[in-house]
Amino acid sequence: MSVDVKYTTEATATGGRDGHARSQDGRIDVALSTPKALGGAGGDGSNPEQLFAAGYSACFIGALKVAGQQLKMKVPADVAVTAKVGIGPRTEGGFGITADLTVSLPGLERDQAQQLVDAAHQICPYSNATRGNVDVGLTLA
Q1: CB 3.0 to 4.6 Å from 80: which of 3, 18, 75, 104, for a disulfide?
Q2: What are the structural domains of the chain?
Q3: In this structure, what DSSP letter does residue 75 have?
Q4: Helix H or strand E segment including 117
Q5: What is this structure's pTM?
Q6: Which of 39, 44, 76, 72 is nearest to 61 (CA)?
Q7: What's the pLDDT band for 1 if we cut at 50, 70, 90?
Q8: Mind listing the pLDDT tens digit for each residue in 15-65?
Q9: What is the DSSP letter of 16?
Q10: How far apart are CA 134 and CA 120, in angstroms?
Q11: d(Cα 106, Cα 84) in Å, to the nearest integer?
């Protein structure tokens, strides 16, 4: 697979799940905490799954807009995507993640909304990166 890279960014984490992460431009600068469900203290920090959920949901909206242009459908201004990301042990060993996206496209007929979601799932870089590796569910709200 070849990618014609148009943008590159960097972030550095230190201390692992109970550490700190910062993008090279400083726009993201977060404390990290391990959730109690994973054996951590909970803490006030974010965790990698939250950051993944935020990125995937925002990226999927971008993909919906591209799909809308391609399909000549208007994506509502109040489109919303909620990404629910889970983490846990895999039966094959190690750990894995799951992702469930709930997509709200107010004002669109259900069949049109489904067509947009299906097209966006083929366009979205997060969907393409996870395909075949992560169980991703798609639900229309």
Answers
A1: 104
A2: 7-46 (2.20.25.10), 48-140 (3.30.300.20)
A3: P
A4: helix 110-123
A5: 0.94
A6: 76
A7: confident
A8: 999 999 999 999 999 999 999 999 999 999 999 999 999 999 999 999 999
A9: G
A10: 17
A11: 20
With a CB cutoff of 8 Å and minimum separation 6, the contacts of 97 are 49, 52, 85, 86, 87, 134
Compute CA distances 65 → 25, 62, 105, 123, whole Å. 27, 5, 11, 10
Strands 11-14 and 20-23: antiparallel
Does residue 20 contact residue 13 with C-beta atoms inside 8 Å? Answer: yes
Spatial separation of the C-alpha atoms in residues 49 and 85, rounded to whole Å:
6
* CA–CA dist 113, 103 (Å, integer): 9
- Angle (CA) 5 6 12, round 5°: 75
Instruction: Report how far residue 71's alpha carbon sits from residue 88's, in angstroms, rounded to the nearest whole number.
Output: 37
Secondary element (H or E) of residue 49: helix 48-71
- Alpha helices by DSSP H, listed for 12-47, are none
Give Dmax (Cα) for the chain.
49
